[in-house]
Amino acid sequence: MPRKTNQSRRSSRHSSDPQKRNVRSGGSIGTLTEWDDERGYGFITPVKGRGKVFLHIKSFRAGVRRPVPGETVFYTLSTDDRGRPRAVDAYLTEYDEKRRPPFPHALIRKLANCWLLALVILAFGIWITDSFPAGLFIAFFINSLFTIAFYWEDKYLAQYKYWRIPEWSLHSWELFWGWPGAVVAQIAVRHKHRKKTFMALFCVCVLLNITLCWFLLHEDRIVWQQQLFFLFSGIFRG
Questions:
Q1: What's the CA gap between 33 and 68, in Å, rounded?
Q2: DSSP code of 75?
Q3: How many Å apart are CA 197 and CA 191, to the nearest integer?
Q4: Of 25, 42, 88, 175, which is least packed with CB atoms within 10 Å of its CB?
Q5: Under a CB-based contact definition with an 8 Å cutoff, are residues 224 and 215 in contact?
C-alpha cells in the first residue's frame, strides 16, 4: 500500500514537470538566446536539434509576460512562408503567468489608457481662462507632462519585464496636444526613438495635431472656437 502511494507521488511530480509535459504533448523546448524587446522578436536555441528558431512577441499565448534572454521557452515548431523555422503557441512556464507591475506603476499604466483625460484637460483650461487659445496652451503644457511620464513609465515596465503601456495609448496622448512632451521624452529618456513604425505614427499624430490647431485658431474658424468654448463651459458649469 505505501509503495503505491510513493509511485503516485513520483508520477505526480513528473506530470507537473513542464518540460516532460511539453515533450509528451508534441511541443518543443529551447533557450531564448537572443531577444530585442524594443522590436518584440528574438531567436530560440532548441534543446534538441540545430539552428535557431524565430520567435515573435505575438506568438506567445495570451497573458504571458514579456520574456528575458536566457529563459526556457516552450513552443510548437512551425515554419513561415519561406520555410524557415518559427515558434508558435509559445509560453514560459507551466502556468502561463502574467507579471503585473506593483501598485504605483499599475496606476500610471491605467491612467495612460485614459486618453480622454487629455480632452478633459483642454476643456478645463478653456473654462478657467475663458479663452480658447489660453486653454489650448494649458492643454499643450499639462498633456506634455503626462506624456513624458508615460514614456518614462513604459521604459521602466520594459526594463523590468512587466506588461507595458499600449502604443495606441501613447499615440493618443501625442495626438491630443502631448507630442511636445513625447519629443522631450524621446531625447531625454531615449525611448521609442529607434522604432521606425512607432516614429512614423508619431509623425502622423504631430501633423494631425498641427492641422487641427491651425483649423481651430485660424481667423475664419472663430465660430468653431465659440462653439467649443460654450460647449466646454456648459459642461463644467452645468
A1: 9
A2: E
A3: 14
A4: 25
A5: yes
HSE on the CB side for 144, CA within 13 Å? 15
Q: From residue 44, how far is each of 41, 48, 96, 189 by CA, in Å?
A: 10, 11, 18, 30
Q: In this predicted structure, what is the pLDDT of residue 13?
A: 41
CA separation for the pair 217, 155 (Å, rounded): 35
Distance between first and last Cα of the chain: 78
Q: What is the pLDDT of residue 160?
A: 67
Are the beta carbons of 55 and 75 closer than 8 angstroms?
yes
Q: What does the block give as the cell for 23?
A: 515533450
pLDDT in tens, 22-31: 444 457 888 8
Helix (H, G, I), strand (E, B) or coil at 235: helix
pLDDT cut 70: percent of the chain above it: 76
pTM score:
0.58
Tell me which amino acid residue 142 is: I
DSSP state of 176: I
Mean pLDDT for the stretch of residues 206-214: 92
Overall fold of domain 2-91: OB fold (Dihydrolipoamide Acetyltransferase, E2P) (2.40.50)
- pLDDT tens readout for residues 135-172: 999 999 999 999 999 999 998 887 766 788 999 999 99
CA distances to 52, 175, 190, 203 from 209, rounded to whole Å, are 44, 6, 23, 10
Q: Which of helix, strand or coil describes residue 39?
A: coil
